[in-house]
Amino acid sequence: MKAMEKTISLILQIIVLSTVHVNSKPCSQSNSECKQVRMPLISNDLKAPLVAEFDITSVNQQLESYINDDIKSTFSEEIQDMVKNEKDETKTSMLQDYSLKLNTTKKEYDKRFSNIIQNLKAKQREIKLEVSEVYKNLSESKSTFNTELTDLLSGFEHRQESLKLAMLSEYLSKLQQSQDSNNQKFHDLASDLKSQFANLSQELKEEFMKSTTNLQIQRQELEEWKTNLMETLNDTLAPIEYKYKDCSYMRGDKNKRSGVYTIYPDEINGIKAYCDMSTDGGGWTVFQRRIDRKTSFDRNWIDYKEGFGDPQKELWLGNKYLNILTSKDKYELRVDLTDKNNKKTYALFKTFIVGDENSKYKLTIGDYSGTAGNYMAHNNGRAFSTKDNDNSHKCAVGHGAWWHGACSNSWLNGMDSKHYYWHGYKYNKTKMMIRKIL
Question: SS3 of 311, please?
Answer without folding.
Answer: coil
